[in-house]
Amino acid sequence: MSVPDYMQCAEDHQTLLVVVQPIGIVPEESFFRIYKRIAAVSQVNVRDSQRVLYIRYRHHYPPENNEWGDFQTHRKVVGLITITDCSSAKDWPQTFEKFHLQKEMYGSTLYDSRLFVFGLQGEIAEQPRTDVAFYPSYDECETVEKRIEDFIESLFIVLESKRLDRATDKSGDKIPLLCVPFEKKDFVGLDTDSRHYKKRCQGRMRKHVGDLCLQAGMLQDSLVHYHMAVELLRSVNDFLWLGAALEGLCSASVIYHYPGGTGGKVGSRRAQGGSLSAEAGNRHRPGALTSNGINADTSAEIGRAKNCLSPEDIIDKYKEAISYYGKYKNAGVIELEACVKAVRVLAIQKRSMEASEFLQNAVYINLRQLSEEEKIQRYSILSELYERIGFHRKSAFFKRIAAMQCAAPSIPEPGWRACYKLLLETLPGYSLSLDPKDFSKGTHRGWAAVQMRLLHELVYASRRMGNPALCVRHLSFLLQTMLDFLSDQEKKDVTQSLESYTAKCPGTMEFITLPDGLKLPPVPFTKLPIVRSVKLLNLPTSLRPHKMKSLLGQNVSTKSPFIYSPIIAHSRGEERNKKIDFQWVQGDVCEVQLMVYNPMPFELRVENMGLLTTGVEFESLPAALSLPAESGLYPVTLVGVPQTTGQITVNGYHTSVFGVFSDCLLDNLPGVKTNGCTVEVIPALPRLQISTSLPRSAHTLQPSSGDEISTNVSVQLYNGETQQLIIKLENIGTEPLEKLEVTAKTVNTKEKLYGDFLSWKLEDTLSQFPLKPGKIATFTVNIKVKLDFSCQENLLQDLSDDGISVSGLPLSSPFRQVVKPRVETKPINPQESSKVGDFSHVKTLEAILNFKYSGGPGHVEGYYRNLSLGLHIEVEPSVFFTRVSTLPATSTRQCHLLLDVFNSTEHELTISARNNEDLILHAGECQRMAIQVDKFNFESFPESPTDGTQFANAKQLEEERQQAKGLEINSKLDIWEASVEGVLNQLVLEHLQLAPLQWGPILRNSDPSLLSALPIKTKLTPNSSICHVNHPQLTC
């Protein structure tokens, strides 16, 4: 026997072998549909008996194996069922002839046969026949199962007659010698009358009768015959048949101990049927008789105590039988099948190590030169058996060998599909799964080197199958899951191969369904690049939405009467873990920052990288980046535009790397830090862009509030100069600009300002509103710089000490000029210079213009935006009032104000005073000017803290009074926008103030000629509350 049956199990020894074959041309689908119905009748209860017959069906059986039927009767084909298609009566003779030819192939062993004819109707089909059954079609054959049962009963009749015939002790008759095919030539010329020969014949026949009893359902009788055969054959050293007798004894004992079977599905079917052997059913029935009249109680006791082997003895006898088989080269198939049967028994006994020894022996059994198909079958069965005993990696090893045999070079047309299918079945044995989620958490399981080899073989098999999509999927899986175990060179090789495959078939995120129904999940490249953190970014300061204060409380729920609830606080705390405390705006570009890392030893090009979101319609704007080799953490900003309002959740990102498109979800990224994934999108707001007539400033303002300045401009002005700032307001958004508020704030300055620093008229700009998208409005701001013009250094001290009386000067010539040297020509010591003042010092002023604007749907919901413009003004000194004094005038209501004016610029200046001639000052020149002014009445200013409760203290009140007086004097002098407020001291102010008492003549007659004779009445009037005079009347 040359073809092993790897599906053999111990209980097959009690089965009758029936071959089911087609005759002529029969559709394969129709044949196997009938075959399955026939095979369903696998056990039949014998009439008038408690015995059960078990049938084993095969649709293909080598005739040479049938020659070993005397050695083990379950290998003998005892029944033949043929199926044919015959549509006309003309074809019937030829069909029937083929049936006879088929019977002749197994004629020497057949007990009975049947022919099922489909499609033939008429006179021939109506003739009653026992060996032929006619059916109109494959769908109209309800009696197939009944025909099979009748056929099995006919087999039992023949079997029982043969058993009785062989079991009868005919001492006078000569017992024939049963032989296996290769023994016949060895027994030629032997002495058939010798005692040794007769014992051999008796032992072999006794073993043969034991086989027949086992097939006939007489388990206890078969045990008795096997024991007798073992004793006889052991005495004559007939090792081959002794092994067969021992194996039969093991099979019967297995059937007794394990009525459910050892062959997997077949065994489970028998257990479900519930029909055991007659002896097993009568084990506890006193007085039951078997067919040969032996008391069942006695036989059962014998079987339990002596004849039936224990589970441990079964394995020992199997080992002994296999050792005897090993002595014969031609019994390799018998030895291999015995090993397989023993392993199945050991698997039920959960004795894995002993089972592995049997399997290891089966691996090294040398058979004839096997075909590639037989090798595949052999390694597949070995793999299945190793799987049953729990040796998963060993099982995967042999299944992989079977897969390689499917594509052996000696095969003209390699079966790459079968190879691929077997390779997939090896994955669990090597702790390998095709789902990348199994590799995202925990430590790596299995041998990475073996797993990579297997994945490479899957890629190669996929390529030979002509399926590039499978190649891409397996290569992607290899790169994603085995990245940490690949060398630098292997990484380069794998990526090059992947790029070559994706050029033909890009990798997608779709499931790939294999022909057998297996679905391969997508493989996202979460490690190319590796993402360490994900952070949702707030909008730029100028674009961040703000809620109007009057509307802040509208969204607060008022359903609960309690001020505080721990349940609500707890739920809010959970929500805070995901939700972010800022908002995005519909229609504006939003940003998410990823910190990524390139683990590859070469530059990694990532294309089409964008965001994956849910909850709000979102337009992702893909980005492309190139990461250096082993770059370390590298920031990447992904952007997109929300198209609707509501809650938006960032679930992950998508990429295209090496031609593979990946959707990477944050839930599948272990160890990724995030500040939250959900943010609120509010309705659209307009976007305002400002541009000015001034150049941009290199100085960046840093306001104390922390707000960012969108634009910074700078300008240089002389102290006292005024300049207009023209600002263009452009609506660059998609919503109309409906509301605008402008405020100003001076920051970071210690200088004292006089007058209005920044002024504007907003009405002119608002007249251009609403401002449509793309339109521009203008806004004008007046910048007036008025700082302190005083100087502590007395440059003209000699003018008042030269002995000349200024009061003698005519009023029409108020000026005296003395040209002094420039400041830089004076001896300067840095320390002394800082004491007396530096005329070239440039002072800095900084201010912020804040634009609060809104419009569109966002304005309806109560949102607005802020845009800030920073002003950096460098103030250069122009003129200084180094000294101020007064001289009395001819009238008590007037006086002369003397000013020492110094030109600190490099230009010629003209100074104009009201009702006076212009004064020309050259660069670095200092002159004194006298201005006749009316004295002032300061009664309108607060005199005591009780009159000015808004001031903090008396000192602040006095400073305010000083400033107010200076403002009035400055407004009346109007000296080129240069203020004298800072140089007025208390003494000067007292000289400029009207006297508390005013006197003057009163003429009673208007005729001037009578002036010398008229009496003069003098009136004294107090002008201040500090003068305590009760209005006296003086007459002279």
Mind explaining what this structure looks like?
The chain is an alpha+beta fold and 1036 residues long. The chain is 32% helix and 23% strand. It has 26 helices and 39 strands. It has a 6-stranded mixed beta sheet with strand order 2-3-1-4-5-6. Strand 30 (879-888) and strand 31 form a beta hairpin. Helix 6 (195-215) runs parallel beside helix 8 (239-257) and helix 7 (219-235) crosses helix 11 (296-307). The longest helix has 24 residues, at 144-167.
Summarize the entry for a quick read.
By secondary structure, this protein is α+β, with helices and mostly antiparallel strands. 32% of the residues lie in helices and 23% in strands. A six-stranded mixed sheet has the order 2-3-1-4-5-6. Strands 11, 13, 15, 17, 18 and 20 form a six-stranded mixed sheet that branches.
What keywords describe this structure?
1036 residues, 39 strands, disordered C terminus
- Oligomer category: single chain
The whole-angstrom Rg is 58 Å
Strand arrangement in the largest pleated sheet: 2-3-1-4-5-6
Number of strands: 39
Main sheet specs: 6 strands, mixed
Domain Trs120/TRAPPC9 third Ig-like: 888-964
Main location: Golgi
Domain Trs120/TRAPPC9 first Ig-like: 531-659
Domain Trs120/TRAPPC9 TPR region: 353-500
